[in-house]
Amino acid sequence: MSVRTRFAPSPTGYLHLGGARTALFNWAYARHHKGQFILRIEDTDRERSTPQAVQAILDGIHWLGLDYDEGPFYQTQRMDRYREVIQRLLNEGKAYYCYATPEELEAMREAQRAQGLKPKYDGRWRPEPGKVLPPPPDGVPPVVRFKAPTSGKVGWHDLVKGWIEFDNSELDDFVIARADGTPTYNFCVVVDDWDMAITHVIRGDDHVNNTPRQIHLYHALGATLPHFAHLSMILGPDGQKLSKRHGAVSVMQYHADGYLPEAMVNYLARLGWSHGDDELFTREQLVAWFDLDHITPSAARFDFDKLRWVNAHYIKETPIARLASEVAERLARRGVDPEHGPQLETVVALYRDRADTLEVLTDLVLPFYQPVHPPAELVAAQVDDLARTVLRDFRARLETLPETDWTPETIAAAMKATLAACGVKMPKLGIPLRVVLLGTKQSPAIDQVVAVLGKRETLARLDRLV
Q1: Shared-domain flag, residues 353 and 429
Q2: Which residues lie in Basic and acidic residues bias regions (predicted)?
Q3: Would you say 428 is a known binding-site residue?
Q4: Contacts 24+ apart (CB under 8 A), 205-212
């Protein structure tokens, strides 16, 4: 049996972390078993589904590198198929028309609540042997309800949570087609998964309560049940439901914030799944190792610090040319042209080990490509009269260096000569020099910074403040 998984988001918003992890687990499981990964867009909620949300989902899937083998399929393009299956269930007596009005249903629920009962449909329009139904009322468009079993139990072995079971008496005859004829979620999902031969339904555990209803539909259609695996929630660091303040934003926001897709894939994979103590692994290793046996049934906690640590690792591992390309795009968005300055790859190589996001890396290289205006209080604190004397001496030595001999080694030699001539320690030269050249007290080795900045720009910046 070829494994076939699917990711089936509803385009009513962006692709968030939970959805991205679900997509990743489906993709990884299919790839591990050399099966197929299908993308389906569940867009039957016409009021809330938007083309912009569809595009946001596609963008997120593409950015994460979750290539799909089939799709995207759209439920709105499958309405004829849904109507065909609904009619079959009606013809076979496995579904029926219900003419109860919204007002009648609400009154029914209120009466049940008043008796301390769980509100559910009471089967008033359900056909039964010997039961006489009233004539359909005029002007009331009916819904179609599925005729669910009323006794016994329904259960399944969940590949994450183990055995799960429901009493059929707790369920009711749920609606499979609304009064306007549009099919409902639980119905469409079953028909889609059946038609697309999905073997493993891997999804969030907010769908656990839908599963018994869907199992009944599978049985009514004579379809083979897929395996179910329900993933626990992702919580914030404080153990509360993930919210925007925790990072529950669009996956593409992480792209904008400077995270690499490799880092997001690595980090998302570890949210609820593990391979021993391995924290860092390649996409290829994930595919080789991924299984459902090592998914924890308990909720995972999102940790920004851990994500940034993982991202810093991938920044260090990413080829300089690609990092420079990423930084160039971010500089351009800030209106900065990296052509007017030192070679960008050289500057990126100088700073890559100090950055945990591409945005931080862009911030670090920015002073090499635009005028620097150190804060007055920083200048006052670090560039005193003695520092100016030291800097002037250093500047004079730099001026004598030919550009053909402008290297970290010759610059370091000039620094040593200045320190000896002025009788000061390195901080009295290094810190003021960083403030004047970059507007900060910290940087990589200052001889390398001066070498990359170039002779003309270094002297010009010293002249402006010294």
Answers
A1: no
A2: 119-129
A3: no
A4: 205/161, 205/230, 205/231, 205/232, 205/233, 206/233, 208/158, 208/161, 208/164, 210/185, 210/186, 211/156, 211/164, 212/154, 212/155, 212/166, 212/168, 212/171
